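[job 4417] fold queue: 2 targets
>>> target A
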Amino acid sequence: MNAKEELLSRLSRLHKEVKIIAAKIEVDLDWFDEGEILPQKNHILKMGYSEEEFVKFLDGLETIEYDGYTRDIKGTVWLSDGSWMQRDWNDRGAWWERYAFPPIPKELIN
């Protein structure tokens, strides 16, 4: 598996009209073994990106290969529906968790 496959797999479970509007993925290079080809440390996708920039972003994530799960990748992906995903991990695995703002209570609405 690589980071591109993992992210695209998680995105495929969302409504097809939800798109990435920005992203920042960071790799903790300390977790890689000596002699391994190190991936780029930061993978940034800025708002208003072009198709070429999106492909370059995904190509960079494709270079981050791992078996099973890895905790050396963290990041945030902002989505067009106002939600965001954050990569998290514990001793049992790693995953992308999706977050959204909770509904505003009626007493807070004028």
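>>> target B
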Amino acid sequence: MPDRLVIRTSAGSLTALSVKSGGKTYVSYRGRTFQIERAGRRRSGAHNESSGEARAPMPGQIVEVSVSEGEHVEAGARLMVLEAMKMQQPVLASVAGIVQRVAVEVGAQVAEGDLLVVVEDKS
């Protein structure tokens, strides 16, 4: 079950969800998933910003695919949704461009690091 994180600032309260899986900690905040590691470790993020690749941030099941190959998307557009540990994680485009490859379909089980979608940067 995910833990809810609440951060109170003078501007108001912010919330995020935290999940531990396989010795790693993931934090979901505003539609993005971050892997938290101790300083000095290499981060294996969900996105390769320069290539437009989106990879699974954690093991789970694809519950929605919102794009198809050849479709133009803007940076930040929702490409698909991954469900992991009863928590839905939207997968967002890191770049504006054309969807070159959708590597999974609804119902697919994915492992951490599996390729989900490739968007060719057209900026």
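[job 4417] complete. Note on B: The longest strand covers residues 12-21.
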